[in-house]
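Key result, reporting period 2: structure in, sequence out.
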């Protein structure tokens, strides 16, 4: 099939900034989470995916990590880590889901532990600068051949960030494949859960779908 526009691969550079907000306990964490920018929520739920290319950390989610080791709230940490980010299509939904988990824990009562001095949760946010990689695919077959050359930052941008931060219903790859007339392949790529694998594993699985479809 043909007739679709070329797919142009983009990447981004990130500038991480401290917001000046910090939390010592769950009450403060909740208060700040309700007020920080969406960029901050996205950063703390996603930056670990770029930091760990070949192995998975215990928790990708900074909120889960901090409540587990700084507050010793292991049950809450597991609940926060279990929030299914893949089921959401906006950062606002992610914020609401995490806030609800923390709010339920506080409503249950119990000790509102404070982190040890120096171990407070510091809210950060990232500013992204998007740029072209110079790579483009003129057809679907070329797309799958060139995908192994694409960096993890580019893969992250097209598969995770574009969908959530821009409020799109699917990732850029699946949208383009559907526009090119490969609806079944677009759905298969869209069904891949990037939150249960590394970016390298995600790339390999997308390429394998192309190979299965006879395009590689």
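The corresponding designed sequence is given below.
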């Amino acid at each position: 099939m043909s007739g679709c526009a070329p797919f142009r691969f983009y990447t981004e550079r990130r500038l991480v900034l401290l917001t000046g907000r910090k939390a010592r306990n769950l009450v403060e964490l909740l208060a700040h989470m309700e007020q920080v920018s969406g960029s901050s929520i996205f950063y703390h739920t996603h930056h670990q995916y770029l930091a760990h290319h070949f192995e998975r950390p215990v928790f990708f989610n900074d909120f889960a990590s901090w409540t587990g080791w700084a507050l010793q709230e292991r049950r809450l940490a597991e609940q926060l880590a279990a929030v299914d980010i893949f089921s959401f299509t906006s950062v606002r939904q992610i914020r609401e889901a995490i806030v609800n988990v923390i709010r339920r824990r506080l409503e249950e009562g119990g000790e509102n532990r404070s982190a040890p001095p120096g171990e407070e949760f510091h809210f950060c946010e990232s500013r992204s600068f998007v740029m072209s990689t110079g790579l483009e695919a003129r057809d679907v077959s070329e797309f799958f051949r060139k995908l192994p050359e694409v960096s993890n930052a580019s893969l992250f941008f097209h598969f995770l960030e574009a969908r959530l931060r821009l409020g799109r219903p699917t990732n850029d790859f699946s949208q383009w494949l559907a526009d090119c007339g490969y609806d079944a392949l677009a759905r298969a790529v869209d069904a891949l859960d990037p939150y249960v694998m590394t970016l390298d594993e995600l790339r390999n699985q997308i390429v394998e779908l192309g190979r299965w479809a006879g395009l590689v």
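The mean pLDDT is 91. The CA atoms of residues 59 and 65 lie 6 Å apart. This case is discussed further under Risks and Mitigation.
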